[in-house]
Amino acid sequence: MQTEERNARIIARGKALFASIAGEKPTLFNTSSWTGKIMEWSMRNEQFKIQLFRFVDVFPSLKTSEQLTGHIREYFGSEQDMPPVLSSGARMAGMFGTLGGSLLAKLISANIHEMAGQFIIGEQVGAAVRQLGKIRRDGFAAVVDVLGEATLSDEEAEAYIATYQVLLGALEHEQQRWECLRGGVGDPELDWGGSPKVNVSVKPTAIFCMANPQDFEGSVQAILKGIRRICARVVALKGFLCIDMESYRFKDITLEVYRRLKLEYRDYPHIGIVLQAYLRDADRDLADLLSWAVAENIPISVRLVKGAYWDYETVRSAQMGWEIPVRTVKADTDATYERLARMILEQHQICHFACATHNIRSISAVIEIAKELQVPEARFEFQMLYGMAEPVRRAILKETGRVRLYSPYGDMVAGMGYLVRRLLENTSNESFLRQSFSGKARIIERLLEDPAVTFAQEEAVQAGLPNKSDAGHDGLPPFANEPMVDFTRADHRVAFPEAIARLRSQPAGICPLFIGGSDSVTDDRISSRNPAHPSEILGQVCQAGIPEVDCAIRSASDALPAWRDTPHRDRATFLLNAAGIARGRIFDLAATQVLEVGKQWDQAYADVCEAIDFLEYYAREMIRLGVPRRLGAVPGELNHYLYEPKGVAAVIAPWNFPLAISCGMASAAIVSGNTVVFKPSNLSAMVGHHLVDIFREAGLPPGVFNFVPGRGEVIGDFLVEHPDISLVAFTGSMEVGLRIEERAAKIHPGQLNVKKVICEMGGKNAIIIDDDADLDEAVPQLLGSAFGFQGQKCSACSRVIVLDALYDRFVERLVKAARAWRVGPAEDPAFAMGAVVDAAAQKKISEYVSLGRLEGTVLYESPVPQGEGYWVPLTIIGGIRPEHRLAREEIFGPVLAVMRAKDFDQAIEWANCTGFALTGGLFSRSPEHLDRARHAFRVGNLYINRGITGAMVERQPFGGARMSGTGTKAGGPEYLLNFMDPRVVTENTLRRGFAAEEADDKRLG
Amino acid sequence: MQTEERNARIIARGKALFASIAGEKPTLFNTSSWTGKIMEWSMRNEQFKIQLFRFVDVFPSLKTSEQLTGHIREYFGSEQDMPPVLSSGARMAGMFGTLGGSLLAKLISANIHEMAGQFIIGEQVGAAVRQLGKIRRDGFAAVVDVLGEATLSDEEAEAYIATYQVLLGALEHEQQRWECLRGGVGDPELDWGGSPKVNVSVKPTAIFCMANPQDFEGSVQAILKGIRRICARVVALKGFLCIDMESYRFKDITLEVYRRLKLEYRDYPHIGIVLQAYLRDADRDLADLLSWAVAENIPISVRLVKGAYWDYETVRSAQMGWEIPVRTVKADTDATYERLARMILEQHQICHFACATHNIRSISAVIEIAKELQVPEARFEFQMLYGMAEPVRRAILKETGRVRLYSPYGDMVAGMGYLVRRLLENTSNESFLRQSFSGKARIIERLLEDPAVTFAQEEAVQAGLPNKSDAGHDGLPPFANEPMVDFTRADHRVAFPEAIARLRSQPAGICPLFIGGSDSVTDDRISSRNPAHPSEILGQVCQAGIPEVDCAIRSASDALPAWRDTPHRDRATFLLNAAGIARGRIFDLAATQVLEVGKQWDQAYADVCEAIDFLEYYAREMIRLGVPRRLGAVPGELNHYLYEPKGVAAVIAPWNFPLAISCGMASAAIVSGNTVVFKPSNLSAMVGHHLVDIFREAGLPPGVFNFVPGRGEVIGDFLVEHPDISLVAFTGSMEVGLRIEERAAKIHPGQLNVKKVICEMGGKNAIIIDDDADLDEAVPQLLGSAFGFQGQKCSACSRVIVLDALYDRFVERLVKAARAWRVGPAEDPAFAMGAVVDAAAQKKISEYVSLGRLEGTVLYESPVPQGEGYWVPLTIIGGIRPEHRLAREEIFGPVLAVMRAKDFDQAIEWANCTGFALTGGLFSRSPEHLDRARHAFRVGNLYINRGITGAMVERQPFGGARMSGTGTKAGGPEYLLNFMDPRVVTENTLRRGFAAEEADDKRLG
Hints:
1005 residues, 7-stranded mixed beta sheet
């Protein structure tokens, strides 16, 4: 059939369908109800919509009347100020007077429950099953989905599976009583001659809490293990099992789980999967799946949806620097939907099709394509969401007889996420439903247009527009963070083990000093070891003594004049070159960290990304700052503000971010025109030496960057006190930092400058869990912040301060979730936590764990591997009070102190009560508490409703005050200023009464 | 006569005059000459014009062929790159080949000489007199003006007078041979029946080098004394003496000189003065002068000009913050000219009128007004400049018979300033001449319009335009420096002695401490004394001991939490209030400094202005910085960058800028949310206590600002080492500064923060005098920089490095100029230099003078007053080499070391060779050297072709590096950052897959 002809038929059918529902409105848009009014108001008022949706999100966690009343006021203002729509139903009940907070709260609460009830078939299994009977009596089939909180632990996964077992038990019994829905030919025990009466959907991430593409095979195995148990039961009662598709991150895992499961149930046809048309991968994934099914001759079933995580996917990919996995133009998704539907229908013999959409154009297209391809009725059905678009589902039922409602059940807490998604869908400007019921003929015409044509037109318009890309500084593209590793990509997954193997295949070499542009070998050496296998030696690190450091300082001094006078744009170019070199060997640089300091794959990769970010960012910062600024605009004088480097910089780096922090401090010093003597930590000198290679290859002149690993107790003071050193950039412990501050402040004979010390020290960082926190988010973020890289980050969370009301529930979920963290070598992605960096760290941390036993109670202590390795358990200690050492001293290991605060004020007070002020976090959904924390939670980096590690260059400039540092912010817009002195050059341009005019002169008042 | 009728007649006459010169061109616009070509090119190319005029300015000082060749290249590029017009004449001579630098230079040099010759009647008196004869033979009279360098010393003033004596001697003889120009009725020995044949102009500032409205009466007396000698001679030979009007600064002095002179020569009619129509004061000044003449019945003569210092006046007033004294609309000046001309002509019986303009409209108006008022011909004449607008002068001569040419003579060096002014006049877009000879009828119509009408129209247009004033921050007007004291205003001149008398009329009181919002008196007190009269005691300053300082720190700590949390806008408002209070008592604040530290009037006033500037600027800076900035634009997260104060600040201030520096450091600390313990110098505690009054009246909460004068050796270390102090802001000597750096770096038990030290220390500042420097500028600026406030500024010049080629000439002028600086009490404006601050300073400086005698040669040592007072002589010591202590150590007194450098490289090397790097200066007109100095002269504040003291807030942020300070810049855009720690608050705004969109999100790649 010709495209035009088919399209004409589709439009005709669409018009007929629209005609059949003319004048009807879905419940949701019925403005005589509170829900309808609220929806309408939300569509007109974006700010209200945000507040409303956020309030709906927090609503189920509000346990007391005070909490509820307080949050209503915080979100919407006092009753007098809030939009009338919110209190309107209430106000009627209150006879036009004001209601008082408590009555208002009760009424709003009732309304929200009613709103949720619109989309959920019940909170308990009994109610749900009864509602299913009603649905069937109305002529619809159903697919049941169990709403649940995020699965954070094996116990919660187990509970999820158990819920299905209960549900299936109830349905097994109930389905006996259900008559089959009117069918064509086929099995008379099945709906429509082909579909089981019992149909359930399951979510893979609910089945395995540690699902993660980084451990692809482990994740597939674990999910499969759980899903088999549900599947067996479904098959036993001859039901249908659909594996839901969630976010893109788990897509390939889910497809793999589906294929393996199907291989186990080759002949059982009623196991389906969901595909999302909005994904750019969708065509390829569907083609692969269909050819696999054909090749294996395995009957499959596909539910085709548009996709429900668009906001999340676009935001997350922007945050991670990845290509956006979803289509960004609505018409593109709609056109894809029709294209994929056709692909499936063409293979209807092997693939059953569930067309899941409310879009009348898409539905009409499917009906016409099926007709054209003569697809038997039993091979395709229509699915819509319970509670939405009632007129559409009635019309399609009338037309096709085969409509299945997606019917979630479960409790309110879990249901709110689902509710918010549904509200979003219905209020978005692009919502088909919203437009469908506008009642305007012109709009209907447009809704029925061929999306492929619309998309092509939009593309053409876009192509004609000027290029949107920002100019950035000086011809460079603007700064963007280096993309994070993306384990949804198979090439990234294989690159890690390959790089580790490559590294191990090389014999352990000698790591020399680098002074004045040349390698320099010393006899004094120490071994670099893998903390998980200390017998594995990665290299021999030459140790600098005082003569070598002295020589390096001389080299740096000699190189200074020429480097200082190198144009700032050229200095920046060296950094950009270095960034390119690092980018080219990113997996090797990460693999070295995995083995040398025991860092997990993703974190090691992130460290290299951060190093690249520093190079790219500081290069641009110098290009920005390098141009003299005119100050004032008084005629007859030109005042230029410019910068000059401080001189020779000593850069003293820690081992925990072995490339990023070293590279950040060194590159900031270098690009601003200083020359550098770099002392890495001996624990990460192999990684540190990579910096030598990178800068050497980037062509940095000799003497600008010198590398002198050595023992701090031998060379540290000498380096810091040397009169030719003008600047010390240090990141490390408080003890060493304070010693440097004191030593550097002493003026020695012949000293050039008062030394500048840039000092980043430790932290004793707390996360506050407010009583309305979203635990689905808080628990995993907290675990990541506390135990990622074994807690060996100055930003790591070492205290969690939990509000009394939530304490028990929180600790329970936390400890259960922690059990899922397995401890083992970082090179194996199955382990979430590895070994600590050396025996000294192991000893110190173990002592703190012992102390914790005295000061508090051990809530959890993980098992650790036997045999060699610097293992310490993941440890959670409860009952800690502010006066305890565990609440005050930096441990720098995987030990988390849990504190119970009576209220938010106390939580803030405790959070601030250590000598440190580095990072902090707060999980709360109280606007007032968030506002208060912004000011009163006095740390360098405060994170709200997310983890507290992983600061990104430019976005989260990093560093703290008090005993955590001197208020410098690495990766921020003021960082380079620490490395330079500002100068002002003033020229009198008035000569002989004649002043050259400048364009920006302020003349004549 | 009706205005319209008169205007019609003026236009008709103007048209006739234009018609009579149709087709003629002045020499200057004749493009067949090199000058004409150059002028035309300049009019088309602003950048070339600037370079050309600057080159013309430096040209006479280029003594060698190499210098000349070098400067041609630096100004215009190599021969290949320079505009063809510049080398065109030359190229023709060179037969179309390239010429080689030396030949090109010779030809350009010859052309510039020719260009100058156009405007100057001769370099020597003989040639000039001959040229005058020729002028007279052409039918023109002349007024002779002697071009001279700026008068920098009494000797130079004497030489100027002597030149006039020689000139008058020659003219006395010569005039015998001159026939009278055709006259009407009247004295047959006079030109035109009324005008002496000999007519000379003199410049008041050439007669007294220290002329200064601050010492109004002294200036009038000194000028009168010199002018009398010329006048006597002029009267003796029955000539005409005109007193020229120069810049606005000297206008009232000149008018006063004229009146006093006329009172001495009541009946001699041939003494005139110049009035400038472009001055806003012109109507009032003329009216005053005419009524004075009528009242006294003294015949006067006025030459009315438009005014030649427009650029200078507008630039200077903008720089000083004064109202612009000149009219800013050309038509306004032209209309004023006609109005004033009418006023004079109406009083023609008492006032002779010289109409000095080339503007045909103005001339026509004068002719018509004179006709209307029936003014006898002998009572008015026309004046034009020699070398300009030849067709116009011929036409007016033909029309009126009475044209006098303003005829300068003198040497090239002095002549170039005059030449540049003439070139500017002819190339300006608004130039009447330039337009007059365009030959276009439409332009002529417009040139002849009534300027009063044109001006009214322009005013109406301006009034209709939207208000141009910038919005500034948060509704405040943008920052502008507080206007400097303006001694051209009589009210400012009387305010100082009044304020000093007021201060002296109060009994010496007790200056208490101020702690926690209350005064606090101690028994330990020291006397504050006037350094010029140590027996004069200004007050008893209570001394804080350790208990008082401890108490002040506690008060500040207690006040911190509330002050820190006070909204930044409110904190800023306190500063703005304080600024208003200081502004209201500005003369009293300045007078206290005059008596307490011996600061001269203008400098004391400037110190208070700077204090007000700090308050106004830091308030705005905090308003700017107080708003959290979003970083990154990634969707789903909000990163806000904000600041938090460091804590309790110790502010330790010096005595030399007793209000400004104290107020600057304290207000920066306060506005950024810190609380302050302020220790002033005991030498300026009375001034310091004014800050208490100001902040108290501004309503600052108790404890935010505490005042604890005391002995450094008693309380200094305690204050700096106190664990509750988080910040030390210090300005003072290197010795104390370095001690503070060391002490503050030690961490004490219970200490809150690593202390931040903001440290501004000394300088050993050099000015380089390049071999092409403009000595007219360099010498007075150098003296001001070295000896202003007795050299007691960290920015003061204490070394001058002179290039060998100019050394002798420079030193000669310098020493002569220094002799004019009289030393005496600061309260008397007759004295340029006062006493040093105390006996210890006197002793230390005297020791350096003795040392200077050993290391070098005393070139000049001023006399000092006898009797009490901490006097040291103004001292200039030559023969100093870099290794001498006088070249390396800060003296902090009026001692200048002179060094002779062999070339510019050596000068730069010497300039940089001390341990300090605070200020520096360069007088040069070599573009290459200026460029080099910008980078290679490594000081915090480099000043090009101006003095090196008096940095202004916002325009010249102040501070240096090396042993001069830690690279902070007071009054600059980064200063407040030193007082705060940056924080980042990151919020994850993605909840339940729903991210509120921000307007500046970067979405979708």
